[in-house]
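Q: I have two molecules that I believe assemble together. Could you output structure tokens for the complex as a whole instead of separate predictions?
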Amino acid sequence: MSRFQNVRLEHASRLINHGPTVLVTSAHGGHRNIMAAAWSMPVEFTPPRLAIVIDKRTFTRELIHASGYFGVCIPGAALADLTYAVGSVSGREIDKFARFGIASQAGSLTGVPLLEHGCAAWMECRLIPEPHTEQAYDTCFAEVLSAAADARIFDNGRWSVREDNAELHTLHHLGAGRFATASKTTHARPA
Amino acid sequence: MSRFQNVRLEHASRLINHGPTVLVTSAHGGHRNIMAAAWSMPVEFTPPRLAIVIDKRTFTRELIHASGYFGVCIPGAALADLTYAVGSVSGREIDKFARFGIASQAGSLTGVPLLEHGCAAWMECRLIPEPHTEQAYDTCFAEVLSAAADARIFDNGRWSVREDNAELHTLHHLGAGRFATASKTTHARPA
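A: Yes, here they are, computed for all two components at once.
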């Protein structure tokens, strides 16, 4: 049973504000793919826009350029193995959804595969073509068209990190399959 | 006593791979500044390049454009209050280093202020002028010229997150002064 509910677009940047590793999903012409990406960031609150680095040699880049859309899914700690696995093989030869038994649904605005089980949130994104930065830095800009999050960990525009939702704590790749999880929090005191 | 030691340039991307909030430092013509930035990411391993969002209305953008350089310092958990404070006021009227009692040293390659006390690492960066993305997305690209890290938490190209170095665990801004700290880690099993 999904606990996902819509995230208001003005709150979408908060989903990746703290630097989680994400899963990028794409689909076109009967093909679909999923890969991990550690390098993404918001670039604008309203309209919500983000930048993400996707290597130009990947099958994902091909599918995104063909369709103009991609999904950004934010895996929880329980998906650490899967996150590392889908980042380590290419989807050009195999369907990673079938290979790894990944359940997904098609985004209502874009048709890209979206993951809910084990994920904290997802976003449907529209590529904003920027040929120079795509070529020079593998950096793709996009506008977030819709977003949703598991209400157990992100509700009313805020992250709620607790012991009882540990499996949804976001992953932050330290390298070589080691992740920090966003499990401990601290609150700054006003100056 | 500083425990900082040089980080090899091919390992520089790992310093921000996991999405920490950083402090951006800058200096030009007798002025200097420091601000917090949650939105940054590596874009290339070698040469090490990164992208960072710096609002075009900030004093920091002015100083960076004048000098061509900036510093990226990675605060540890003990600097949560400071990180939030320097992100909440403008350096156009006050010198935040004096106001908040921040110790810094001038980078040997660029002259930008670099923080060591309380920080896990720093990088000296050279702006790669990209007028379109700077204007359209406030996104600045840069090459990392040198990097160093506190050997207690980053050594030989790897993060070492332990209970005894908690004050150096990186900060990941969840919003409104709440940070997740990179304190708990998990290791993905190969597929």
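A: One point stands out. The helical segments of chain A are 59-67, 80-86, 96-100, 131-137.
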